[in-house]
Each structure stands twice: as structure tokens, then as C-alpha cells.
Amino acid sequence: MSINLITNISLVVVATVCTLLLIRNTPAISREYKTSWLNVSFGMFSANVGLALNLTRDFPALSYLYVLGPTELNLVLKTLCYALAMVLVFNGLRQWYPLILSVQRDSQRKARLYRKLVEEANSVFLRWDRNGKIISINRFGEELFGYTKEELAGRPVLGTIMEEKDSKNVDVEQLIAGIQSNPDAHRHLESEYVTRTGQRIWLAWRNAYIDAGHNNKPELLSIGVDMTERKRVENALYELASSIGYAQGKKDMLRDTMRHLAQAYASKYAFYAVYADEKEESMRILALWDGETLLSDMVYGLASTPCQDVLQGKLEMIEQGLQEQYPEDKLLQKLKVESYFGTCLKDSSNNNIGVIAVMDIQPMRLPKWSQTILHVFADRISGELERRNSEENIYQLAHYDVLTGLPNRLLFHDRLEQVIAHAARNNQHVALLFLDLDRFKHVNDSIGHAGGDVLLNEVAARLKSCVRESDTVARTGGDEFIVLLSDFGTEKQLLRATSELSDKLVEVIAQPFYIDSMEFYVSVSIGITVYPQDGNNIDYLVRNADIAMYHAKEKGRNRYEYYHARMNEIAEKRSRMESELRSAVFQNQLKLHFQPVVDVPGGEVMWFEALLRWQHPKLGLVMPDEFMGLAEETGLIIPIGEWVIEQVCRQLQGWQQQGVAINALALNLSMRQLERVGLIAVLDKTAADYDIDPSQIILEITESMLMQDPERTVPLLKVLSERGYKLAMDDFGTGYSSFGQLSYVDVDSLKIDRSFMTQLEKEGSAACIVPAIIGMAREMDIRVIAEGVETSAQVEFLLQQGCNHMQGFYFGFPMEARECEQYMQASKHAWQNGGTAL
Predict the structure, then answer these.
(1) Which of 254, 437, 678, 729 to pair with 685, CA 20 to 30 A apart?
(2) Distance CA 111, CA 51 (A)
(3) What is the C-alpha to C-alpha distance for residues 205 and 202, in angstroms, rounded to an integer?
(4) Which of 598, 463, 608, 589 is nearest to 524 (CA)?
(5) What is the pLDDT of residue 829?
(6) In this structure, what is the dihedral angle of CA atoms 707, 708, 710, 714, given to the nearest 10 degrees?
(7) Which DSSP letter does residue 156 get?
(8) Closest of 404, 511, 505 to residue 460, by C-alpha
């Protein structure tokens, strides 16, 4: 078989296979390309026919068929088949040409688009080979790292843009090897890099392994996103959260927060401020970070400032031109601020309490997510501020007087302890001034506790104005204050300073107080004790000053007294007497004596005055002068007074039942009893219980009691008079009242004070005053009774002046009830015989 035959057979087989393959895949061809596909298929079939005809030319024996064998017709047909095949194939390929061009153009366009995306992307596109050398980098990478792509090409990643170990202490060489061997395991990475200028930046990478890359060699494609800003914010927020979450109570915590906040926003300034005044017209900057240092305690006006607009809800963000919008804000000009972002600090009631803001000297553009950070930490800082305010309020309540704002007893004791310790180390002297207001209760009763509070505040202000800044003025309760003076080198210096200050305090407090358009006067009694002369113990020093203060009160008030050791004996005696007096009330140690009030010309006993006595188990009979003052101060006068009222009514009932001609008894009322609500009820109930008519009870009040609180006393006395009780003005002439004031009170009797009786027999004003009192009382139809009459000369004088009613030892000593009965049974008394009962 010849080579030509073998070749022709091979061509026929190949052509047949290709034709069959084309025909087989025809159904998968889309409609628009099926015509060209069929043209090519039929062209291959026609070529296949031509090849078959050409094969028969090698077999002459087939020539009898005309179209086969080496005949002319065979040649013509073969040629036609080839020509038809060429036409059909060409026609099919002609239809594919636009498609080929379209694909080529799309490919080129996509390539250009990819290159533009890579070059214009805000991400790093880094290609590097398996040896860790850089192949190429896009423009963003060039700008970020500070190298051109030509400078980076061929250079190793390690030592150029990465250190051998990254910020997480990962060996970068091993990391590269891991990416090369298993790219999927290192598809997402975050790492720190170094720029040409040494600046550290953070990138988040997405890695892909390419089998056929540059020059058909394997390479790695890493796409990196700059997350330096995010990392910086994360770190700053972590510091913020740590400073707030783990350092609560730390003094400088919120100040440190401002530094972290400025770092989070990459701004020069960050600050927070709260209202500096009650009118909310100014702000106090508690912490301001200026990029280098923390500043604090700056006060500035709110008017025409961005903070004012933030608080009013008008704005939060000004990206640039801040000074132009607020030309009157001098702080912005001083700091050269260009942009501002702030929000309100609020308390738990959603009330504005301040502002937190960041500012920069450059225009500021913040994404939305970063703007919310300030609001989050504004809430956290607001909570911390409120917590601190609560702690301060608790401390304030625990250590300062709520009304006056002065240190209270607890804080005073703490300061006293510190001052004494300092004085002991430095051999110095300390003084305590214990102050108690006189007649303060009168103010409270006149205008109520609210008015009393106003007076106490004014007293506190006056006290503080008189002392040095280093001294302490404290309110220990009620109307009591303590002044602590320290740093005296010698006792002489201390005594001079304390006496001068005490004189000043007495003078200052004595000045009038104006409350609700009314004028009030109070005075102050001061007790002074000195360290170390009067003791080293804090409690002893306070007690000693208290004792000295009571001595000042006993000596007339409105004065000061220095403590001395003998006062302790008096105080102990006083304390013991108070305890014994309390027991006496409940152990029936009190008793009543009675002294007659007589009508001298008529020789009749008008009534008896009930006088209180204390039958002490050890001391014997104790006179009221020795314990009534104590009873007044301690409040024991109330149960004692009620006991006296009951005993008077019981005694009157007993005498009535026995037929004794004593139809009335007088008893003394105290100021405490007049001030106490319920006096009238006690009198009415007791009188009713013993079937006593109110007219049989004569209530004696002193002139000073009427003057002490006339607004309260006069209406009360009117009610008592209207109910039938008789009223007598005791000790008249020693106070400041006048007959004009008596006209407002239905007084039945006026008792001239016994002090005038002792002066009648001497040359002096008493001989003029007594007749004047008698004359005026007669004109007002008020009965006059002279107290303390002891001699016949006094009786003669009084009778000559028209005073017929008298009381005193001349007519009889105070006596027990049994003796009163005997007194009344006597047909004639000694004084009626020209003698005396003495």
C-alpha cells in the first residue's frame, strides 16, 4: 500500500470523526450561533465527501462507475466538494468574527477596569512570590507605605514593610510559609506594619494563592484594608472603658478619660464641663486635654458659645469655621479651634448637667459610627458624675449641717482631734467657744420654724464673718454653735484673741434680725474652754465649754464665761439635782405650802397663794429658788406644773367639804406652761374633776412672761379670763411692761414686787414708784397687792397710799394645809393686834 493511499485514508477518518463530533454537539449550540455552526458542520461534511472521492482515485477498477476512480467526473465532483466546503466553513467563520472581536474587547475592557479598580481602590493590592519578594503594589499601597512600586519590586516583605515579628509576636517568616503551603488557613489576617517614615499602621489582609501568576509562576495576592484608624479608636475606647469600668472612685479617672477621648477622635482637645452656678449661666471645665497636658477648674460664660447651643439642642457637630460662627467665644480664639463635636451630659432624670466635647484645630469629619461613641461615653461619664455627686451628697449630709451648711458635730470632732494633735506636736494652744442663742424659742414660736431657720442661717453667716479662714464654725444642733480657734503660741495670745472675738460675737448677734418684715432680737451666751489647760480629752473640752456656757446664762445671758475647775462641782451638783428632781416628781417628794393674801383694813384673808416646796430626803426642805430654774430648763416644769394644778384643786375641794372658809387659791404659771399647747385643757379638766369653779383659781404670771412673747401670751390670757380664771400680774415693776399693755389683758390683781418693799424705809425712788403704781392701778380698776411686806412701817406706808391688800411674812409664813385651817379658825391674828406674824 502506497503512502498516498494511507494518507488519504487517514484524512478521511479524521474528517469523518470531526464531522460527527460537530454534528453531535449541534443541539447544545444557542440559536443565534446554530446557523454558523451548521455551515461549518456541512462544510466539514462536504470536505469529507471530497476526501472520499479523492481516495477512490487510487482504485482504477472503480472507474466504471464514472464518479469513482481516476475519472474526469470524479475530479470535477471532488473539486466541487472542496469548493463547497470552503464556502460553508468561511461563511460559518464569518459569523463568528464579531463574536471573537466582542470577546476580545470585553476582555480588554475588563482588564482595564481591573487595573483601574486596583489603582483607585482604598485598599492595598500586594502581589508577592513564594520567596516573600514583592512583585507589585497598587497606588494606595505606595501612598500608605511611602514607597513607589519600582522601589518595592523585588524587595522582600520582611525588613521592608514588616518586622520579623508582628505586634502579636507572630513570626512573619513562618506566617508566609503557612500562607504558601495552605492559603485557605490564612485567608484573613490582621497585622501591624511599618511605613517608610517609621509610622506604624494596621492592615487587615485577605490572602489568595495563584498557581499561574507573573510569568506563569505561582504567586500570592494579598488585599489589605487600612484599619489603623479603627485600631486607634479601639485602643482608645479600651482605655476609656478601662478608666471608667475599673477605676471608679479614682480621683483623676475622668480627667484621664479626656485624654483617651481625644486620642479616639484624633483631635487636639477633649473636655467635659458642668454648670458652675444655679442660674446655669456659666460652665466649669473639670478637665480639658490640650494634646499635652490636662487643665481643669476653668469657668467661662455660656452665652454665645457652642456649648450653649448643644445644651439647647441646636447642634452637635461643626466640621469647620467654628470661630467664625462664634466670634464672641474668646476660649475658641485662644485655643485656635476650627471644629467641634459635643453632646450633653445628663442626670438620671434626663436633666442637662453639662457638656462633653472634642475639638480640633483642623476641619473634623467623623463617620456616623464614631459619632455614637461620644454619646455612649457621655452616658457613662454622666453616670460616674452622678455617682460622685451622690457620694458627695452623702458625705455632705454626714458631715455638714443641712440647714446652715456648717460642719456638724461629727466633722467638728474630727477637726478638733486634728487640731489638738497638731497643737500637741507644736506646743500650741487651742480654744473652744460654745455658743447658745438666748430667746431663740421666742422667734420659733412667733413666726414658726421656717422663720427660725432663717434666723439660724443669718446667725451662721454672722459667726463666719467674725472668724479667720483657718477657724471652724460648727452647728452642733438646735440653736447651739461651736467655734474652734487654733495656732496660738502662748496662752496670753489665746486669751486676748478669745476675749476680743467673744465681745465681737456678743455684739454682732445682738444686732436686730429682720424676718418677714419683722424685727427680732436674740442674744448669745458663750462658754470658753482652753487646751491644754482645761483638759486633753475632746469630750471633756466640749463638756467644759458647755458648762461655762450655762454659767454665762445663769449670770444674765448675753455674755461669755471662761471655764474653771470649780464649775465642774456646780455642774455635777446641777446634774445630780436634775436626776433627783425627776425622781421627786414621781416619788411624792413635792409639797405645797400656802401664804395668805389679806385685806388689811377689813382683817380678812382673801385667798392663799400656793407655794411649791421640795421635801428632799437628805437636804430637807428645798426652796423653789434652788430648783425651779432647773425645772424650766429641763422641761420638768410641765409635769410639776400639772401636779400643782391638781393639788390646788384637790385642796380646794377638801376645804369646801370640811367647811373651811378658803374659797380661792393662787398658783404660779411658768413660761414653759404658757407655751405648751393644752394648758387650758389641763386646767378645765382638773377643775371639773374636783368640782372647782374656775373663779376659785388665781393664775399668777410674771411681768417678764407677758413681755417675752406678747403675741402668744396675750390671746391665751384672754381665753383664760373668758373661761372664768382670775389673773394676777406677779413681780410687777421689775420688767419692761407698761399699764398700756395691761389694758390688753383682763388682769384682776397686780402684785408689786417685793424688792420695792425693802426700799420703802430708805431714801430712794421706791417711795415714788410704789405710789405711782398704786395710783395708776386704781385708775384702771385693778386690785393692787403688795408682796414681801415684813414691817408695820411698810404696812402704814401702803395703807396711806391706798394699798389695802398685802402679802408677806408680816401676815404669816408659808404654811401647810393643816396650819392654814388653824389660821382661818383664829378669831384674831397677831398683825391685827398691832404685832407681827414673824
Answers:
(1) 729
(2) 44
(3) 10
(4) 463
(5) 75
(6) -80
(7) B
(8) 404
Rounded percentage of the chain residues whose pLDDT exceeds 90: 23
Q: Which residues of 339-370 are buried (b: 16+ CB within 10 A; e: fewer)?
A: bbbbbbbbeeeeebbbbbbbbbeeebebeeeb
The Cα–Cα gap between 245 and 243 comes to 6
User: How far apart, in Å, are the Cα atoms of 793 and each of 472, 758, 796, 810?
Assistant: 60, 11, 5, 11
What tens digit of pLDDT does each residue of 568-607 get? Answer: 666 677 778 888 888 887 888 899 999 999 999 988 999 9
Q: What is the dihedral of CA 54, 56, 57, 58, to 10 degrees?
A: 120
Contacts of residue 509, defined as CB under 8 A and 6 or more positions apart, other chains included, come to 437, 459, 462, 522, 523, 524
C-alpha cell belonging to residue 790: 415684813
C-beta separation of 64 from 73 below 8 A: no
Q: Are 302 and 320 in contact (CB under 8 A)?
A: no
Query: Is the four-CA dihedral 241, 245, 251, 254 of positive or negative sign?
Result: positive
Order across the sheet with 472-477: list the strands. 472-477, 480-488, 429-438, 523-531, 560-562
Return the C-alpha cell found at 708: 417675752
Element (H, E) at 605: strand 604-616
Task: Please report which confidence band the pLDDT of residue 459 belongs to, taking 50, 70 and 90 as the band edges.
Answer: very high
Cβ neighbours, 10 Å, residue 448 = 11
| 308 contacts 276 by C-beta, under 8 angstroms | no
